[in-house]
Specification:
homodimer; alpha/beta; 7-stranded mixed β-sheet; 14 helices; 11 strands; elongated
């Protein structure tokens, strides 16, 4: 029999579609154990712990928990606070006062660092506290994981959006540029590739943060595609950078900011990227029908587009976290490893190995020209977006011979 | 027994999620009749007729037709051509040469005008030609219809996007402004209101083209909401206008266009609206976390978000069109009328009564303050978005008493 005491669970950082599955996994698994005297949820992540904003999840009905599990975004609300040493000391003080013996934090790689520091504090004070980091992120950039909960559903949304955009672009041809979030890693933008069904389908070009973006190459490549197909669908990550490794977005903001005499203080820059690229295509390639859209935050919040595989795994990392801590008395970060095609295993890694680190798209996922993805990537991604992914069908009927001369 | 001859069906204007259901309805119903010698599909709308770009849909398998029916965007591709008298004379000439006796055009209100003029040409030439306009539009602005095919699914997408955005805004509070397409009618923007589940849910403010937009009122209203809830989600139509009835968007483009010394030629203006509103909120209300997103074209193309009611009705207007023309020897525009809650009937109206006219949100759908919609509107809309609309659930657990003094 392990530590007797309370559980605190919290959610930090940007929400995902399946983040509540992890919460539910922790809560239901914890409540099974007689060691656990109460299960607290902290409102607004670590801010909630700081302010003692707890709700007693031991008093939450299992039915409602399941419904919440299916609801996107952090049911316990969230925070963007990035605790330093002093902050973590305060967190520990509150946890100790409430007789908390198990701390579960669902978040990205910086959350892992928070958990690590709180764990250090507990060790120094000789206070028995089990601390587990539970991964989540739509960017898929947490190290040691084959992929992270939240990515599969966000990728599915991006893929469905591009599937539709490809059809739209085919029915009213032109150049259509769509910007996808992801400042450092291109996994989400790359997910657009699942829209490529027929050989002439888009996105015809995919630009990722992992490759230097050159305007001249971009224009040349768009022209090639447009000349061949009479249309061009482009997926662009907001994180594309130039030769000096500077974000294209920030260069644009400076230009607009100065030129507009401070009239327009831009709050979100990514839309501007799409429009900028559209305008240079229009000007340089003399193509009339050019437009751009930006996917914005919808892939992390859209209610009604979810990967069942992602949902399932998000639930499991929550359950495993509780099992590792309560039954095996361990600390660490839960990681997902791929064990087959397609199957996964859950392991626990040291918090320090995960904390504050990020990963990016490996070379074998990107084509040599640096403007698309490889089949290897699509093979990697396909199981993650789950079942029931809609396809797109075309008419197959034969042509009718013309009988009049053309005018 | 009516006219013996061929059918031509085409799709015009912006695509919708369910536009192929109407195509399939026409084709399958036409093929049942022994009067119909062939069913042609014109590629790229009226352009296809002009260029004799026909495919023989009598040779399309019913199974593939059903799959295409489920695929968004115009399977026959589309056109933005708006035919004048001379163009329509040419269209008639081609139709006559191919012994076409039935012309079905799936499109918005300007498509109805095309059909009307072609019909006139046929009458003048004493050539027996049945012409039917089949409605479609995501904006819901075709007159004489309770609603039009394409709207229900687009509205569902908007509602699901806002449901998620509301959850996102609740978990990481701030001011979140989302721009929705719709230059003249606010039906699509208004659909965001279905995200309002709990009394503090957003969108807290909805700004439509049907009401004058005043910056001062906007800032005052955002502040009121933010002060009350600590957050604010705003739905804004891209078609909002000032007191002089001028589109806010165009005023911004002028400002940017001139100030940026022509460096940036803006191709799509709607994103700029969101960012402009976000910047004035930031500056005037001194709120730090303010962001904006624009839904863009996704609500008309997204593959995997559809209203079954919309799908069903889109199929039926296609079938009815074929029945009206082939079995009853009539010309006109198919309209949908609401006959119960919830049921519809299909009727045929004169082409001239529909052609070139638009409708907007009636007063009883908009609240007196002009910044939200009424329950009457939500009641009107709810059946159109179909079954299986995802809800959003909240935790209900009780608060835990604090035991430390606050810092």
């Amino acid at each position: 029999m392990g530590l007797i005491g309370k559980v605190v669970v919290a959610q930090g950082g940007g929400p995902t579609i399946v983040i509540n599955q992890s919460l539910v996994g922790v809560v239901l698994e914890s409540r099974k154990s007689t060691q656990i005297t109460s299960v607290y949820g902290a409102i607004k992540g670590v801010e909630g712990i700081l302010n003692e904003d707890f709700i007693d999840l031991t008093m939450e009905t299992s039915h409602n928990l399941e419904q919440v599990g299916l609801t996107p975004s952090s049911a316990l609300l969230s925070t963007r606070d990035k605790p330093d040493e002093r902050y973590c000391q305060e967190l520990f003080r509150v946890l100790k006062a409430h007789d908390i013996r198990y701390f579960f934090y669902i978040g990205g790689n910086d959350s892992a660092d928070t958990v690590r520091i709180v764990n250090d504090n507990a060790n120094k004070a000789h206070y028995n506290l089990r601390t587990i980091h539970i991964p989540k992120t739509i960017d898929n950039d947490v190290v040691l994981n084959d992929h992270t909960p939240g990515y599969g559903s966000a990728a599915r949304f991006v893929a469905q959006a591009f599937s539709g955009a490809n059809l739209d672009n085919r029915s009213l041809p032109g150049v259509y540029i769509i910007v996808v979030m992801g400042r450092n890693a291109g996994f989400l933008t790359a997910a657009s590739s699942l829209a490529q069904k027929f050989s002439d389908d888009g996105p015809h070009l995919i630009y990722l943060p992992e490759r230097t973006f050159r305007i001249d190459d971009f224009l040349k490549e768009v022209k090639e595609v447009y000349d061949r197909y009479g249309r061009c669908l482009v997926a662009v990550s907001e994180g594309i950078r130039d030769e000096q490794h500077r974000l294209i977005i920030t260069k644009l903001v400076d230009k607009i900011g100065r030129d507009a005499h401070g009239n327009l203080e831009l709050t979100s820059n990514n839309f501007l990227l799409g429009d900028y690229l559209a305008s240079i295509v229009k000007k340089n390639l003399n193509i009339k029908r050019v437009r751009s859209d930006t996917l914005g935050y919808f892939q992390r919040s859209f209610n009604g587009c979810v990967s069942d595989v992602d949902q399932h795994e998000a639930r499991e990392v929550g359950e495993k976290a509780a099992q590792f801590a309560i039954r095996q008395n361990l600390d660490g970060s839960v990681v997902i490893e791929r064990s087959g095609y397609y199957s996964v295993e859950y392991h626990l890694k040291p918090l320090a190995d995960v904390a504050g680190k990020t990963r990016v798209m490996p070379d074998h996922f990107i084509n040599p020209a640096g403007n698309n993805v490889t089949d290897t990537f699509k093979f990697y991604l396909r199981p993650l977006i789950g079942s029931g992914f809609p396809s797109a069908y075309r008419l197959q009927a034969p042509r009718v011979p013309k009988i009049l001369e053309s005018e």
